[in-house]
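Standup notes
- DV: blocked on the single-chain target, sequence here:
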Amino acid sequence: MPDVEPLVFLGEMTDDRGARGFVLQDTVSYVQYGSGLDGDEQHEEVVLCFMTESDVDALHDGEKLAAAVNESAQRAASLDHPILRASGKGQGSSP
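- DV (later): unblocked, structure below
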């Protein structure tokens, strides 16, 4: 089943091989622990991914993305639009 996983864009970087790309982090760990690029150590639950421009382009074409976003919007509406609240870095997800 197709799914849309929201990611937070952290910035453009160059990897160890010299490839330019984008650094993204999963939304849940970003809300709970802040940017995985901040500080000397990152929490073990932080998930970062590096994607080149061609990787990003290959994820979805416009029609598939529109369909996935529409499905996600319908799911959110059926759940009465739940809100993920940021609680501060390292504080967990409690309101």
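- Follow-up: The chain has three helices and three strands.
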